[in-house]
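lol forgot to send this yesterday, sorry. struct tokens for the thing we talked abt
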């Protein structure tokens, strides 16, 4: 049962239009001990990504002779949500860590780093929906800032259906009361989709429409990623 309407007069509860992203902020190298790091905010949702490596992998039995490996840990801080989240890993964070690794893996030349690991951490400081996609955007920037050889960046966003309307970038209340939501990531230059998860029910037509919206939103996010990288290296 929905507590309140999510769409009123064509606008969402935070005043956005259906196809409108939240205010997005991106910052590079926010963690001094990392090889590369980034903070990305989608509205109130805040992810800090920290990349360490390429570095030797121990214990040795974890090493792979023909390739390097990417390890990802996604973690939501206990204070990031209204109802305190118990600290430490759980099934949700284990699954999200895995799908983030799979979303980022295709862009990294891991075969150039046999026996080596690249470790990426995504800490969610504040959660208001779409945390995994925010984490992917932050990790993609952090990998680039760490100088990891990559074929492309990875841009990511959520899309879904609320009160019968197809929307992009769901906030927490929209996510929890949606009819359907999808997490999406792509390598913008290669046009490869590296993450597609969906909850709820949609028609084929709606899925196709949402995929198009997700691609368009990811291209906007990609432009922002490129800008923040260029500005950083120009010293702005
Ligand atoms: N959430 C929460 N407590 C939790 C997990 C999630 O309040 O333990 C909220 C949070 O705002 C999150 C949203 O529910 O962003 C949606 O979570 P979901 O598991 O769908 O993943 P996300 O959309 O964050 O990638």
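and heres what i got for the seq, position by position
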């Amino acid at each position: 049962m929905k507590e309140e309407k999510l769409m009123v007069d064509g606008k969402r509860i935070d005043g956005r239009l259906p196809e409108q992203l939240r205010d997005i902020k991106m910052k590079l190298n926010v963690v001094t001990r990392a090889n590369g790091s980034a903070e990305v905010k989608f509205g109130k949702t805040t992810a800090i990504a920290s990349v360490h490596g390429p570095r030797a992998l121990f214990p040795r039995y974890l090493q792979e002779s023909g390739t390097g490996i990417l390890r990802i840990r996604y973690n939501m801080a206990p204070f990031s949500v209204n109802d305190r989240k118990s600290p430490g890993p759980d099934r949700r964070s284990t699954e999200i860590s895995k799908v983030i690794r799979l979303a980022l893996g295709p862009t990294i030349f891991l075969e150039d780093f046999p026996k080596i690991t690249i470790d990426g951490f995504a800490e969610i400081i504040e959660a208001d929906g779409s945390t995994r996609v925010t984490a992917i955007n932050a990790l993609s920037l952090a990998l680039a800032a760490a100088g990891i050889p990559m074929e492309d960046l990875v841009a990511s966003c959520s899309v879904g259906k609320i009160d019968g309307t197809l929307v992009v970038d769901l906030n927490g209340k929209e996510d929890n009361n949606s009819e359907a939501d999808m997490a999406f990531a792509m390598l913008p230059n290669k046009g490869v989709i590296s993450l597609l998860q969906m909850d709820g029910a949609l028609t084929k037509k709606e899925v196709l429409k949402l995929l198009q919206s997700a691609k368009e939103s990811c291209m906007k996010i990609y432009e922002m990623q490129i800008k923040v990288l260029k500005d950083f290296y120009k010293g702005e």
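The pocket of uridine-5'-diphosphate is lined by residues 81, 85, 92, 127-132, 172, 175-176, 183 (CB under 6 Å). anyway ping me if u want another try
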